[in-house]
Design a protein that fits this description.
The complex is a heterodimer.
Chain A: E1 2-7, H1 11-20, E2 27-31, E3 47-48, H2 59-78, E4 82-83, E5 87-91, H3 94-110, E6 116-119, H4 120-126, E7 136-140, E8 144-146, H5 148-161, E9 165-168, E10 174-178, E11 181-186, E12 189-198, H6 204-211, E13 218-228, E14 239-242, E15 252-255, E16 261-264, E17 268-270, H7 280-293, E18 302-313, E19 319-322, E20 330-334, H8 340-358, H9 382-391, E21 398-400, E22 405-406, H10 407-415, H11 423-430, H12 443-454, E23 473-474
Parallel strand pairs in A: 1-2, 1-12, 2-9, 5-14, 12-20
Antiparallel strand pairs in A: 3-8, 4-8, 5-7, 6-7, 10-11, 11-12, 13-16, 13-17, 13-18, 15-16, 19-20, 21-22
Helix pairs in contact in A: 1-5, 1-8, 2-8, 10-11, 10-12
Chain B: E1 6-13, H1 17-28, E2 34-37, E3 53-55, E4 64-65, H2 66-79, E5 84-85, E6 88-93, E7 98-103, E8 107-118, E9 122-124, H3 127-130, E10 140-142, H4 143-153, E11 155-156, E12 160-164, H5 168-179, E13 183-189, H6 198-205, E14 212-214, E15 216-222, E16 229-234, E17 247-250, E18 253-256, E19 260-262, H7 265-269, E20 294-296, H8 307-326, E21 332-339, E22 343-347, E23 350-354, E24 362-368, E25 372-380, E26 385-394, E27 400-404, H9 406-411, E28 416-422
Parallel strand pairs in B: 1-2, 1-8, 2-5, 8-20, 10-18, 12-13, 12-18, 13-14, 21-28
Antiparallel strand pairs in B: 3-4, 6-7, 7-8, 9-19, 15-16, 16-17, 21-23, 22-24, 24-27, 25-26, 25-28
Helix pairs in contact in B: 1-2, 1-8, 4-5, 5-6
Classes of the chains: A alpha+beta, B alpha/beta.
Chain lengths: 482, 428
């Protein structure tokens, strides 16, 4: 019997878990995926929105601004890549002036610092690769960048260190309540808990509607992206938006925390919340729109394309707190689409404290504060590299040549509290395989290290857990996975 | 911190066929203080996983396997006492030839070289670079990665295979996977011709009854965990899929053999200028880049079809580096070489022709932009046709070459040469 089970191991679920780690109790995070951060949290723009566009007075606006303010410190505490290069929202027509002025006013009401409207010359001086046909822009210096999956992994590590169970590969099929106890039905049997927190992202409405008197509908809104190789110097220093539309913030051109360039996303409502395929039409659409901002976008620099699914609640605002009309002990954070990543630190703190208060949990006196993730070898200077090597000679062994990831880092990614168990798991924790060759060179070595660390046969190593086997058999050995 | 830079005359990056040949030639030409750095644990580069035969026909006049070919150079380098450090990855190269490397045995080391030869080879174009639509399950490999799994690790990446692209590694893997019991359903090529060698199409596809689907491509990838199938469609002359021609294939593996890209990240750091056509360095006839004392050869310069030519080119680069270190380069006048009609990626792009007597000829290497039958390769200056040679077949899958004699070179100092493919024999 758990005190709390969080359903969903995305950035929201893990942010709540991170906060609850400060309390005493028996807790778990459940997710049907085989790793944390496998849904929307692994495939989004990675922007810490300053909060200029969320409508004043909404939960979205309040939690966005609050979360964005917390993000920098949180990332420093966890050792997660963060940057605050600022953003520009571009207008290309006189009609856009009104929309940008309205955004500027909205930003003021929301308490976003430093915003101003600027004209063409200044824009091009700040970002020379922007389409010279630009007319004006909203300058948002408070806009930031974070690596969303690295944040989620670090939050999960801390929760795990403070005693959380992670029930991965476990699908929450149904919720029921009897005698003060919640039962979560899964394919592996029932899980009992005093309180449940629904952070199931794009799938959250199914669970919500089983227990609430107020029905909600979450629409899976897919976003497709191009990822370009890193370049020196950066083609864009800031995140470049266009004037937002009803479907979202439109197509952006943005550096990532690792110096790649991201173009996207689309906004397509799709029936299947797990359908992260890319499509020819979607990618064509991204390129056409991105070229309005960045006419010289060079597709030869593309190293991969991907898509992520945002959980759009039809009413439009975040739904956070006790589930309306449900028995006691049911909480949720649902409809967390953009700016959900930015709001995550605030949602985690508020919702975690709320549930802890509800259950009258005591502060965890043995709380283990997070150890910041060490700096990546690729980002170290020569002196730091020499020092790292002195401590661990595996730093002398480059596994991923494109991103300069060392064997020491790959091994540690497996040994972390919520360690990698698959090729993709190592990739998101270390960047091995994220570069221009897309794991062509390093995948075999990473597979060998995984097998060694996990004490498994190479044939048991998968791309992303489950049945995503990388090998079908050995030569002179029997086939596997029939 | 004290200055810990290690001085060295010639540093060669890569101990594949290019780096080894360059090192051997440089040592023979009298460079005593040289060092080869290799990131893998073994010398030989990609040859080590190419266990099929067909290597060395031109250079050794016999058919060797990849490892056998490599072994000859490895042995020769050893006999010449050329130091090679394996397991050592170069992290950066600067314009003034400071090279930082790291290894498990020795940690970070910084070399100050007088000359550097870039011989890092190439990498395979990944799926992402093609932006093929669809999901991203397990079971999609570049052909070279699959080759490494099968030949080096002894594991099979799949059972029912589609191969996209007809590059040589893809063709070789079609045969390899078949011999190992997998079913290769088809090899799918976007272009109306194969980018692989003709002998590989015959020996690896036709001999095993594997269909080659020209002017086709993969338009969708299916499967959530492991690949379950792909959709293949015919493409028109614009290389776009033709609606209504889609065919579904059930398969668990997709191998990609869709092009090789010279791996020039270190070169860029050093300020080496690249050619957009070859994606390798712009070099002169001594394989020297725009950065004085930095040379490039092998697949990092331009992607070859045959290792024999990699070795030949790299020996020339090694000799040139030796000459550079002796400071014996004769005064020269520079000419430019340009791609003309039908020609792509001619190497070298510059000719430094001695003012005094010209003693050496130069091979110009390039790829045709499509298949030509019974055409002429013509090299001209604005004033004269230097040569116009008949070729019965020219195809993008096989690098073409013309040789300029010392006499021709002595006539074209400071001129712009154009290499082109013409229907008729050209005369001045």
């Amino acid at each position: 019997m758990y005190d709390i089970v969080i359903i969903g191991a995305g950035v929201i679920g893990c942010a709540v878990a991170y906060r609850l780690g400060q309390y005493e109790g028996k807790f778990a995070v459940m997710d049907f995926a085989h790793d944390v951060s496998e849904g929307a949290s692994k495939a989004n723009s990675g922007i810490v929105h300053a909060g200029y566009d969320a409508k004043a007075g909404t939960e979205k606006a309040r939690l966005n601004v609050k979360g964005a303010r917390m993000m920098k410190d949180l990332c420093r505490t966890l050792g997660v890549p963060y940057g605050q290069p600022g953003a520009l929202v571009l207008g290309f027509h006189e009609e856009d002036r009104k929309a940008l002025e309205a955004l500027y006013e909205n930003a003021k009401v929301n308490g976003v610092p430093g915003c101003r409207l600027i004209e063409r010359d200044e824009i091009l001086k700040m970002e020379p690769n922007i389409n010279p046909e630009v007319l004006l822009a909203l300058d948002v210096p408070a806009s930031g960048l974070v690596s969303p999956y690295e944040l989620t992994h670090a939050l999960a590590d801390s929760a795990k260190e403070n005693g959380f169970d992670f029930l991965l590969g476990t699908k929450a099929e149904a919720l029921s309540f009897a005698d003060g106890v919640w039962t979560i039905k899964t394919q592996d049997g029932d899980v009992k808990t005093r309180a449940v927190i629904n952070c199931a992202g794009v799938h959250a409405d199914v669970l919500h509607n089983q227990i609430s008197t107020k029905q909600v509908k979450i629409i899976a809104r897919r976003g497709q992206y191009y990822l370009l190789d890193h370049s020196t110097p950066l083609l864009f220093n800031r995140t470049i938006f266009q004037v937002p539309t009803k479907m979202g913030k439109g197509v952006l051109v943005s550096p990532t925390t690792h110096g790649n360039l991201l173009l996207g996303p689309t906004a397509e409502d799709i029936p299947d919340g797990q359908d992260t395929a890319t499509t020819r039409d979607g990618l064509t659409d991204v390129l056409a729109k991105a070229r309005l901002t960045f006419p010289n976008a060079d597709l030869r620099q593309v190293i991969t394309t991907f898509s992520g699914i945002r959980a759009h609640e039809v009413e439009g605002d975040f739904l956070i707190g006790q589930v309306e009309g449900a028995p006691e002990g049911a909480f949720e954070a649902i409809g967390i689409e953009s700016p959900g990543l930015s709001a995550a630190p605030a949602i985690g703190e508020e919702l975690g404290d709320w549930v802890a208060y509800y259950l009258k949990l005591k502060k965890n006196l043995n709380y283990i504060a997070p150890t910041p993730l060490p700096k990546a070898f690729a980002g170290m200077n020569e002196q730091e590299r020499r020092a790292a090597y002195e401590i661990d000679p595996d730093y002398g062994r480059i596994v991923c040549r494109c991103e300069q990831v060392t064997e020491a880092e790959v091994r540690r990614s497996i040994r972390r509290p919520m360690g990698a168990r698959s090729l993709d798991g190592v990739k998101r924790r270390t960047r091995a395989g994220m570069g221009r060759c897309q794991s062509g060179f390093c995948s075999t070595r990473v597979m060998e290290i995984l097998a060694e660390e996990l004490g498994q046969d190479l044939r048991q190593i998968s791309k992303s857990g489950g049945k995503s086997w990388l090998l079908t058999g050995g030569i002179g050995k029997e086939d596997s996975h029939d | 911190m004290t200055d810990t830079r290690i001085p060295i005359d010639l540093l060669i990056i890569g101990a594949g066929p290019a780096g080894l040949a360059a090192a051997i030639a440089a040592k023979r030409a009298g460079v005593m203080d040289l060092l080869v750095l290799e990131r893998e644990d073994e010398q030989g580069g990609i040859l080590n996983q190419c266990i099929h035969n067909g290597f060395g026909l031109h250079r050794f006049k016999e058919e060797l396997t990849g490892p056998e070919y490599a072994e000859r150079d490895i042995k020769e380098a050893r006999d010449l006492n050329i130091p090679v450090l394996t397991g050592t990855t170069v992290l950066s190269v600067t314009r003034d030839k400071q090279v930082t490397a790291v290894s498990r045995e020795r940690g970070i080391e910084v070399y100050q070289a007088k000359a550097v030869i870039l011989a890092m080879g190439c990498r395979e174009r990944p799926r992402g670079a093609l932006a093929i639509p669809g999901s991203r399950p397990a079971g999609i490999y570049s052909a070279g990665t699959a080759q490494k799994l099968v030949n080096m690790a002894g594991f099979m990446p799949g059972r029912r295979v589609i191969i996209l692209g007809s590059g040589d590694i893809g063709l070789i893997m079609a045969r390899r996977m078949t011999l190992q019991g997998a079913q290769v359903l088809a090899c799918v090529e976007l272009m109306p011709y194969s980018s692989g060698l003709n002998r590989n199409i015959v020996q690896c596809l036709q001999d095993y009854g594997i269909p080659l689907m020209l002017s086709h491509t993969v338009v969708d990838i299916k499967g959530r965990e492991r690949l379950t199938g792909v959709t293949i469609a015919q493409v028109g002359e614009d290389r776009r899929p033709i609606p209504g021609t889609e065919q579904e294939f059930e398969c668990d593996t997709l191998l990609l053999s869709v092009g090789l890209i010279p791996e020039n990240e270190l070169s860029l750091q050093a300020g080496v200028r690249l050619s957009p056509m070859t994606q390798g360095a712009v070099v002169n006839n001594h394989f020297e880049t725009n950065v004085k004392g930095i040379f490039a050869c092998g697949n990092v310069l331009h992607v070859h079809d045959l290792v024999d030519y990699v070795s030949r080119e790299s020996m020339q680069a090694g000799e040139a580096a030796a000459l550079y270190l002796k400071g014996e380069k004769a005064p020269f006048l520079r000419s430019q070489v340009k791609d003309g009609q039908g020609v792509r990626g001619t190497v070298p792009q510059r000719l430094d022709i001695p003012i005094e007597e010209v003693t050496d000829g130069v091979e110009l290497m390039f790829r045709p932009d499509r298949v030509y039958q019974n055409h002429f390769v013509t090299v001209r200056t604005p004033e004269e046709v230097l040569l116009s040679q008949r070729r019965f077949i020219l195809t993008p899958g096989e690098m073409a070459e013309v040789k300029l004699t010392p006499d021709m070179l002595s006539r074209v100092r400071q001129k712009t040469l154009t290499v082109e493919i013409t229907e008729e024999k050209q005369t001045t």
